[in-house]
Each structure stands twice: as structure tokens, then as C-alpha cells.
Design brief:
The protein is of the alpha/beta class and 203 residues long. It has 6 helices and 5 strands, in the order ααβββαβαααβ. Keywords: Cell membrane, Membrane, Protein transport, Transmembrane, Transmembrane helix, Transport.
């Protein structure tokens, strides 16, 4: 009889170890994108009618009905008017010069029946269940755009550049840590000048 040939076999003993190492590799190197959503503040419950009446001039109520129509301070407006109206309200600076809330950098009309300062100005968005999501997002964009315009104006006055450019540079991974630290301080200061006070009252 001839010599029996042996069939070569693959040693699979370490396959489990290899699979485990590949799993760890993919877990470490894979980045998962998360949707941050839209950050908003919910108002605190306040049952004091005097306090509510006092704050009424600092409120900018925006109503959006089921057909996408806008109502601001009981007046029907177009979406394209919303941003300029919001800027006028936020930047009004109606507080008395001797009051702690007085805004010396505001360039508004200083109407004492409107908002005292950007930190006190609150924009509320009220919607109906039938309101289309696209209309809701368009309203949000206009209101956020109003704050961005005001921050850009102050950034140009203080730092001779746009607020949006500063944010982009801060988010850039190639920006040095030293520059990022300075940008972070300046961006935070601009946000304190014009805080994003957009709330959605609970229905």
C-alpha cells in the first residue's frame, strides 16, 4: 500500500481571540454621531400675578397656528418680519439708566414699555398640534438668527470679527489650545451679552 497523505488543517484555536480584538478595534475607532436637538429652557411655574404682570413687557410671544400663520403681540406678521422684530425687542434696552438691568451697549429705541435688557428679554414660542414641523423650524431659525446678528455686531465692535467666525475657529480641530482658550472666553462673553432666551411654554 502506498503512503497515506495527510490533509492539512487550519488551526482555528485563535479565531475567537482575533474576532475579539477586531471587535475592540471597531468599538474604539468608530465614531457615533448623536443629534444634539434644540436646546431650550422651560419656564418655571409662577402663580404670583404681580410678578407675571411685571415681567409682561419682557415677553415676546410668538404664536404659530396649524396653518403656519404667525401672530406676534396680537399682530399678524409674515415670517420675513420676525427676525427684525425680535432684534428690536431683544436690543431695546428699556431699563432706567440707574437700574441694575440697564444695558449700555444696546442700540434699540429704549422704549420703557418693551424689554429692559437682553438678559431679561424672553421669547416664547407657542404652537398647535397641527403646526407643520418645517414652519416650526423656520420660526426657530429666524429667532436664533436674530441673536446671531446681535452677537455678530458686538463681536465686530469688540474683537473686529464675526461671532460666527469665532465659533467656527473654536470648533476647528486644528486650532491651538491657546487660541481656543481665548476664543472660549470671548464667545462666552458674547453669549452673556445676548443670552439665547427662547422658551416653549408647556401646553
Amino acid at each position: 500500500m502506498g503512503k497515506r497523505t495527510q490533509i492539512p488543517t487550519v488551526n482555528a484555536g485563535s479565531m475567537a481571540d482575533i474576532a475579539f480584538l477586531l471587535l475592540i478595534f471597531f468599538l474604539v475607532t468608530t465614531t457615533i454621531e448623536t443629534d444634539a436637538g434644540i436646546d431650550r429652557k422651560l419656564p418655571r411655574e409662577n402663580t404670583d400675578p404681580i410678578a407675571i404682570e411685571y415681567k409682561r413687557k419682557n415677553l415676546f410671544p410668538v404664536w404659530v397656528d396649524g396653518e403656519g400663520r404667525l401672530l406676534v403681540k396680537n399682530e399678524r406678521i409674515d415670517l420675513k418680519e420676525l427676525r427684525s422684530m425680535a432684534i428690536s425687542f431683544i436690543d431695546n434696552g428699556g431699563a432706567d439708566p440707574n437700574h441694575p438691568d440697564y444695558c449700555d451697549y444696546c442700540m434699540g429705541l429704549r422704549d420703557q414699555t418693551s424689554s429692559d435688557s437682553p438678559s431679561k428679554a424672553i421669547i416664547t414660542i407657542n404652537t398647535q398640534r397641527e403646526t407643520e414641523y418645517g414652519v416650526y423650524i423656520a420660526v426657530q431659525n429666524e429667532l436664533v438668527g436674530a441673536y446671531t446678528e446681535l452677537r455678530n455686531r458686538e463681536a465686530n465692535r469688540l474683537y473686529h470679527r464675526n461671532y460666527t467666525d469665532m465659533e467656527e475657529q473654536y470648533q476647528n480641530g486644528q486650532t491651538s489650545l491657546l487660541v481656543k482658550a481665548e476664543l472660549k472666553k470671548n464667545i462666552r462673553y458674547l453669549r452673556d451679552l445676548y443670552p439665547l432666551n427662547i422658551v416653549e411654554p408647556q401646553q
